[in-house]
Write a structure and sequence with these properties.
By secondary structure, the protein is an alpha/beta fold. The protein is built from 8 helices and 14 strands. The protein has a single domain, classed as Metallo-beta-lactamase, Chain A, CATH 3.60.15. The protein has helices at residues 2-12, 61-70, 112-118, 136-139, 145-150, 161-166, 181-196, 262-279, and strands spanning 30-35, 38-51, 77-89, 92-96, 128-130, 156-160, 200-203, 206-210, 213-217, 226-232, 235-239, 282-284, 294-299, 302-307. The strands form 3 sheets. Strands 1-2-3-4-5-6-7 form a 7-stranded mixed beta sheet. A 5-stranded mixed beta sheet has the order 8-9-10-11-12, with no helix packed on it. Strands 13-14 form a two-stranded antiparallel ribbon. Strand 8 (206-210) and strand 9 (213-217) form a beta hairpin. The radius of gyration is 18 Å and the shape is globular. The termini are far apart. Bound molecules: zinc ion. Zinc ion binds at residues 135, 137-138, 242, 286-287. The site of zinc ion has 6 residues, from helix 4.
């Protein structure tokens, strides 16, 4: 199945970037903003194409197909954006999630290392990594040899204790993924634990990584899934990881195929979206179209995403 997805990506890719792409990409892959005094940079790791059904495996196929049609999207494949974030505060440089990497090479994903470099972020200056969770599209970038080589020996990796515990014997009974994915996810998490366990700084519910930068456990998607909350000078931004997807505003109750506890994920999603709508803070999420910066509005029983105007 993974091979099939690779083939799909090959055929979908009209502008194919090689392993060593040019630095002058014509489509922007980074977007910088300030939250009070804190610098936030959204960097794209690329795009991952997956079957449309994974957006909502509990929805009626006709309802799901109608949503895709209304959004001018193909019926059977959906491009998942892969956004990571770099946050600078109090002299610390924090990388939030690390993209897909190259363990399972996909032509349009795994671009974070060269895009960080193009954005002027030297990986050797990264003091902290925050992992929203340990799925391979969030940890894979740190498993690339040339990335591992340049990381600081005193790098701190912040991850929820519940996440580390979960991956010792992960439960895949409630997910809905293409064949081959559970094994690939198990394999990369296992390898990550082996290679990086000594750098982990685990937390139960939340921890402050730097002034105004907190990581808070939500659970749901995975038991240790966490979001990053940035606050400075009266301004706020939340990086929601995999708690919110493009479909999750109109249909927060739709179960995403990667959710290990879909009901709990939906509850946590609604809680977060209500809070963000009430306090009017900015949202960024891993799999929403780049740069995914915007606000959340309440819309009847559900929500609406309001993209931020780009500031040039
Ligand atoms: Zn993900």
């Amino acid at each position: 199945m993974i091979q099939m997805i690779r083939d799909t990506q090959q055929t979908n890719t009209s502008l194919h970037y090689d392993a060593h792409p040019a630095r002058d990409e014509l489509v922007p892959s980074r977007y910088a903003l300030k939250v009070g005094e804190i610098e936030v940079l959204v960097v794209s790791d690329g795009v991952l194409t997956l079957p449309g059904a994974m957006l909502a495996h509990n929805a009626e196929p006709a309802v799901r197909a109608a949503w895709l049609e209304e959004n001018f999207l193909p019926p059977d494949a959906f491009d998942w954006a892969l956004n990571a974030v770099v946050v600078k505060s109090g002299g610390r440089t924090i990388l939030v999630d690390a993209g897909m990497g190259e363990e399972f090479p996909l032509p349009r994903a795994g671009q974070l290392p060269h895009r960080l470099e193009a954005a002027g972020i030297d990986l050797s200056t990264v003091t902290d990594v925050v992992l929203t969770h340990m799925h391979m599209d969030h940890i894979g970038g740190l498993l690339i040899d040339c990335v591992k080589e340049v990381l600081r020996p005193d790098l701190r990796i912040h991850v929820a204790a519940a996440e580390v515990e979960f991956w010792k014997a992960p439960d895949f009974s409630r997910v809905s993924m293409p064949e081959g994915f559970p094994d690939a996810l198990r394999q990369s998490a296992k390898r990550f634990l082996k290679e990086y366990r000594s750098k982990f700084r685990t937390f139960e519910d939340e921890c402050e990584v730097a002034p105004g930068v907190k990581v808070c456990r939500t659970g749901g998607h995975t038991p240790g899934h966490s979001v990053v909350r940035v606050a400075s000078g009266g301004e706020r931004l939340t990086f929601a990881g995999d708690l919110v997807f493009t479909v999750g505003f109109e249909h927060p109750e739709w179960h995403n195929g990667f959710e290990h506890d879909p009901e709990e994920a939906a509850r946590a999603r609604v809680r977060l979206l209500r809070e963000l709508a009430a306090n009017r803070e900015l949202l960024v999420a891993t799999h929403m179209p780049f740069p995914s910066v915007g606000h959340v509005a309440v819309d009847g029983d559900a929500f609406r995403f309001v993209p931020a105007f780009w500031d040039y």
